[in-house]
Amino acid sequence: MFRRVLAALLIVALAAALLVAGWPQLLGLQWQLGVAQVVSLRALAGGLSAVLAVVLLLIALASRRARRLTASLAVALLLFTGLSAAVLATRGWGSEHFAAKGEQGVTVLSWNTLGDAPGAERIARLALDDGADIVVLPETSVELAQQIADRMGAEGRTMAVHNITFDKIAKARTTSLLISSTLGRYQPDTSAGSTRVIPSGVWRPVDGSGPAIVAAHPVAPVPGEMPAWREGLEWLAARCTEPDLIMAGDFNSTIDHWSALARSGELGDCHDGAKAMGDAAIGSWPTRIPAELGAPIDHVLSGSDWRFTGFRVIRDQDGAGSDHRPVLAQLERVS
C-alpha cells in the first residue's frame, strides 16, 4: 500500500513539474528561477523528455514489477514532449524566405559578439553581404564597432557608430550600434534610461524622420540577477509603446517570458520578427548545440508602422567565437 501511495505521489509530482515546465504562463511562473531557464530551452527539454520516456518504456517491458510506475512516468514525459512540440510548431522551425527589399526597406543584423570574439573583418563582411542598415552588437567594444564601421565605409557603406557603456571592466558592459547614413543622423535618447547591469539604449533621428532604434541587452536570468532580468524585460516592454520603432539585440528571453508583458504584440505593442516569419522555434544560443534545440533569445522586434518581410537565424557563423548566432531581419514600412 505504501509503495502504491509513493508511486502515485511520484507520478503526480512529475506531471506537475512537467506542466510548469511546458506551460509556466498558466501559473505565472515563467519569471521564476529554474522555470525561466527550462522554458528557454523548450526544444532541448522536449527532446530529453522523449529519450527518457523511451528508456522508461523499455524498463516497463522488461520488468513486470515496475511496469505500472515506469509506464505512467513515460506517458507523462511523452505528453510533455507533445506539448513542447505543439508550441514550437506554432512558432515555426525555419522559414528563411526574404521578399525583395523595397525602397523603404530596412535590414537589421544583431549579433552578441561575446566580447569582440568574431573580429571586425568577419562582422563587417556579414553586414555588407546582407546589406544591413542597422547593426546591433551587444557585448561589443567601442573600438571594435569603429573598426567594423571603417571596413564597411571602405566598401561604400557609411555607418555611424553609437554605443552605451557602463564601464570598462568587461566588454559585456558595452552595447554598440551601427546605423547606415541612408537612415539619417541619430542621437541617443538619454531620457529613456537603460536596463540594469548590462546596458541597452534608445536612439532617435535628429530630424524626427525615421524609426526610433532600441539596442537591447537585459542581463541574463542567472541566480542573483533575477530581479534585474525581470526589470530589464519590463524596461523593454515600456519602450514598445510607439509604432515607429525597431528593437533588436540579445533579449536573454524567449516569447514565453513575455506573456505577462504582451499587449497588442508579443512584447508590449512590439511584434517579434521570428514569430511573424515562422522562425521562432530556431535557437540563437548556444552555438555548441544545434539551432533546432537551442534557445531563441536574440530577437528583432518592431512597432506597428513596420511589417517583417524576412527573418533568419544565421547558422554558418557557429565557429566564429561567439556563443550566439547572429539574427537577420528585413522590414518594410506599412504606410
Automatic annotation (TrEMBL):
Signal peptide: none annotated. The keyword Metal-binding does not apply. Pfam families: Exo_endo_phos. The chain crosses the membrane at residues 44-62, 69-89. Keywords: Endonuclease, Exonuclease, Hydrolase, Membrane, Nuclease, Transmembrane, Transmembrane helix. One of its GO terms (molecular function) is endonuclease activity. Residues 109-324 form the Endonuclease/exonuclease/phosphatase domain. This is Endonuclease/exonuclease/phosphatase family protein. The lineage of its organism: Bacteria, Bacillati, Actinomycetota, Actinomycetes, Micrococcales.
